[in-house]
Design goal:
- The chain is an alpha+beta fold.
- The chain is about 20% helix and about 25% strand.
- A hairpin with a 5-residue loop joins strand 2 and strand 3.
Length: about 130
């Protein structure tokens, strides 16, 4: 998957912020809702471009590439990713400034594993070792 909408900016301290437009990953049983060709804007803060792409690949986004610098991150996007503890955020509607940035875990959540407190009785269904 070649990323046409992406870019980067080098910060004064030497680190970089990489911005990519990616197809929204499917969400298991809810996958039909996201088969619309929707894209998300992902921002990654890292020591260099290669490390930023490696962070995404390690999360399961294996075929992520940055070709060129056609859509570098805006100053607002840079601020958002620098203020997030993980340095890795996304939002579904990049042009909508009213949408909040979300942690990457919210995008890549595995629907097969219930979230704590979302079992049928309000209890966590995962075994204690996975909690």
């Amino acid at each position: 998957m070649t990323m046409s909408g992406g870019g980067f900016i080098r910060l004064p301290g030497g680190s970089v912020v990489v911005a990519l437009s990616l197809p929204r990953p499917p969400h298991g049983a809810r996958g039909g809702l996201y088969d619309c060709g929707c894209r998300v804007r992902v921002l990654v803060h890292a020591v260099n471009r290669q490390r930023a792409l490696t962070r995404l690949r390690n999360l399961g986004l294996r075929a992520v590439y940055l070709r060129g610098n056609s859509e570098p991150p805006t100053p607002d996007e840079i601020t958002a990713v620098l203020h997030h503890p993980d340095g890795l955020v996304w939002r579904e509607t990049p042009e909508d400034d009213t949408e909040s940035w979300h942690p990457i875990r919210a995008l890549l959540r595995n629907p097969a594993l219930p979230v704590r407190g979302e079992g049928p009785d309000g209890d966590d269904e995962r075994p204690a070792s996975a909690a």
